[in-house]
Amino acid sequence: MALSRSARWTAVATAAASFLAVAASSAPTQGAPGIGDTYFPNLGNGGFDARHYALDVAYDPDTDRLDGRTTLTARATESLSSFDLDLQKLDVTRVEVNGRRADFTRDGDELHITPHGVLREHRTFTVTVTYGGVPEALSGPIVFGSDYGWMKTPDGVFVACEPNAASTWFPSSDHPSDKATYDIRIKAPKGLTGVSNGRLVSTYDKGGSTYTHWRESRPMATYLATATIGKFDVKTGRTPSGIPIYVAIDPVLANSNTVDVYAVTAAATDYWSRVFGPYPFEETGAIVDDMPEAGFSLEVQSKPAYSAVRNETTIVHELAHQWFGDSVSVERWKDIWLNEGFATYAQWLWAEHQGTRSAHDSFLAGYDSRPADSSFWQTVVADPQRDTMFASAVYQRGAMTLQALRERIGDRAFFKLLPAWTHLHRYGNADTGQFIRLAEKVSGQQLDDLFHKWLYTAGKPAL
Length: 463
Ligand SMILES: [Zn+2]
Fold this sequence. Notes:
There is one protein chain. Among the domains are: 27-133 and 166-217, Immunoglobulin-like (Sandwich); 329-455, Orthogonal Bundle (Neutral Protease, domain 2). It has helices at residues 15-26, 261-276, 312-320, 337-354, 359-368, 392-424, 432-443, 448-455, and strands at 2-3, 48-60, 65-76, 83-86, 91-97, 100-101, 103-107, 110-114, 124-133, 149-153, 156-160, 180-189, 193-195, 199-206, 209-220, 228-230, 233-238, 244-249, 284-288, 296-298, 305-306, 329-330, 429-430. Helices cover 25% and strands 29% of the residues. Strand 2 and strand 3 form a beta hairpin. Strands 6-5-9-3-2-12-15-14 form an eight-stranded mixed sheet, with no helix packed on it. The protein has a six-stranded mixed sheet with strand order 1-20-21-19-18-17. Strands 4-8-7 form a three-stranded antiparallel sheet, with no helix packed on it. It is an alpha+beta fold. The site of zinc ion has 6 residues, from helix 4. Its EC number is 3.4.11.2. Belongs to the peptidase M1 family. Residues 51-224 form the Aminopeptidase N-like N-terminal domain. Keywords: Hydrolase, Metal-binding, Metalloprotease, Protease, Signal, Zinc. Its cofactor is Zn(2+).
């Protein structure tokens, strides 16, 4: 994102107790309402692993009403007598598990589902939820004070959900540690275009509506899903290195658009593929919409979403996130610097590549301009706290950490480390400790002191 501008069993003493423990662990449970993230205790769910979402979304901008049906294919990680999905506010009319009607209750943002029979550990099951209503954007301090999520535009809707707004428009295990593949089908009034993740499977008009089917066949975090709808001019093709590209721009922006979004997207996708490793997705692109109130852009998987015309440095930032955030996703939200510090550092690398400013000078500009008593230095980058998870220090001090690392281990090790990281955790999740260990392995150096000073300690680090 960019702002413009176990319970572990203790040793069991007796054979009888051991037997009881085994018996207890195989009895069906009720799952868990959260995945264990201290910033968002109720996001994600325990007891199953989401594998594939089939989302059907019908949206009418005149009434602002969404009618949806979500079929989630999941694998039980324990025997379940019931389980939860996350869904904020919308009304649920029907739930089926493995094709049979299931009971459900609502408790805040939890949709608690009790299937007809027990779901056995390791078995795959499907849950289909039929729901609808008028989705509400979220607000509060988290996303630079802006609204975010499902946001109405003059001609449709702009959908950008980091960190916790996916469950305002589809029932899900709404946490980046539970990634899945997607089929997303959008029904909108004829003349509007539905833009989503991955590749376009089909689009056709029928009975006054336009139907669009997108498929994201690479694992995706819920917050990176979109179903942005509106009038769009679409340009498709391939980048110079051959990656398919799809750029949708709201036609009202045609005259104010001073950046060639298509050309910059193509060039940055190709350049990052050389620096960070092979491009992880089937298509690159952009969605440029007319939603200036949103004030931010988001690294929506395969097609970053820009809420207005944004500059080149924002585009290269969001595309760097395709590696850092989208392909390699955070295990817990406190690790968010692994997304934002890296995408900000990518902006410095881009300037270096363009010959306008070295990353060393970008580092010094950020370091020297902030006195030691600035509140900027008080953020602990490796655990910035929920409401300040997008604090500028997560971006800037995160990027400074990477430059400090580069100057310590040298260019050769540093530019080996970045693609090693994206390769090792491709399509998965990772945390800060894993990055530190990999940096030590690739460089052959002990780096605890550097990371302790830059990531885990409040205060301005001495150079
Ligand atoms: Zn970002």
